[in-house]
Amino acid sequence: MQLLATRFGTLRLAVAAIGxxxxxxxxxxxxxxxxxxxRHGKNVVSLDANGTQVAANGTGALAGIxxxxxxxxxxxxxxxxxxxxxxxxxxxxxASMATGISPGAPSDAEVKRELKQLERGGPGAPxxxxxxxxxGQAEAPVNAPGVVARVIAGGNAIANFPYIWGGGHGSWxxxxxxxxxxxxxxxxxxGLLKSPLxxxxxxxxxxxxxxxxxxxxxxxxxxxxxxxxLRFDTSGRSGPLGTRWSTLxxxxxxxxxxxxxxx
Length: 263
Fold this sequence. Notes:
The chain is α+β, with helices and mostly antiparallel strands.
């Protein structure tokens, strides 16, 4: 009888040990699966992708985007974005768009106007740097070339629009804009673009390196730019985001600097 009890106790210990091994294996598989999902997210999510990717992969996949500020910039898809009236089509320099030549050099009329403004201290920010106004609009420097002033005016036109994934790519006139849609709209207002570009396309647009007036920072998943010292971007703060101007400088690690020829 004592021998039977001893054997029964040994059997219980063996069963318990097998159970612990099985639980450990299941836990390891679960952890490995979760890690694989996070790694997969890095490869399938882009801020320039359309809303179908969000629906297919879920907004949780956004955690895989390496650029933290770009990751924050996702606010909502078009279906649940805040209601906003459509923007007007950007008022561009049609002559420069037709020729494809960047209007970096101001015309004689623009030079005369800027000299008069400097003489009388007219409207415009001094010192070659734009000013961020309390209402979120940017004020162009008095000595900025006309094309730069028009790019700033284009940015002002959508400075309070909500972020919408893919916004500004189907039409210039939209209810919201994503990162590349915002930059494209402002550049089109200056006559520098005929149609919207994606963030990846901006990596090879224009001339390499920073510009005197306009510097575009582009990567495969995000794009922003500096115009006369102000940053035009859709990322960098928590909560629902939109296109706007900022005086803050952000890291350009992983980005390619480009600029319009002559600017």
